[in-house]
Amino acid sequence: MTDLGNLPPSQPRPFTRIDGAAARADSGAVAEEVPVAFVYGGKPHVVMMCTPADLEDLAIGFTISEEITGRATDIVNLAVVRHARGVEIQMELPPEAQARVATRTRALAGRTGCGLCGIDAIDHAIRAPRTVDSLATFTSTAITRAGDALAAQQPVNNATHAVHAAAWASAAGELRVVREDVGRHNALDKVIGALARVGTNPASGFFVVTSRASYELVQKVAVAGSPLLAAVSRPTGLAIRFADEAGITLVGLLRGSSANVYTHPQRLGL
Questions:
Q1: Within a domain: residue 134?
Q2: 20 to 30 A from 239, CA-CA: which of 1, 14, 135, 251?
Q3: What's 50's domain CATH number?
Q4: Is the pLDDT of residue 244 over 60?
Q5: Which runs of consecutive H residues, i.e. helices, occur in 161-214?
């Protein structure tokens, strides 16, 4: 059996290439995904399918963005334990945070790309977004700069063309943190976790994602406190409604110098 706990983010795989009636042997990099179990205080919470990289960032970001706790320092202990059949992230939390985990038990595994699988109550899934109280403004040039720079900082996707990326950029559009994952929500959680680990305030910049802008991404950005989310694809209707309510500028279809601004365009001087 393959040791899933020790897989790299990607690795070469053979395949047969067909072109019309012709066929030839070839090989190429393939993105890996492994089951990662989040365990709080010895109690399993959820299993997510993830890219096996930056798992500490993922654990911290998930814990913060799901509003289990508000600070990275609240996680007393964090251990990434690799098993033959996957990875277990073991965390210890203060009693009040552990109590919150108990009210949000997830009964199923979270499949690739799904940030909600296993949540057993709609109220837990569709949480009212936080309001982002930020007077920060950005230029369209900054958004374009961040979007243009993102492709070059995705080594796993450039090799496999199979994973998402999320990034946090400064107000000037300079990418400071980039993370990749098979799940778009996992990639964003990794960025949030990386920022929390070094004490960077997300409100001073904005997030960029390579996926569609779904409402759970808006929800996570609102918890992080950033006033802008830009996506290379279009948003869903619920994402637009959440962004409008949360005070977040939601940018979609970011392609070169063009983009659609769906909510709060005044933050871009429009």
A1: no
A2: 135
A3: 3.10.20.10
A4: yes
A5: 184-198
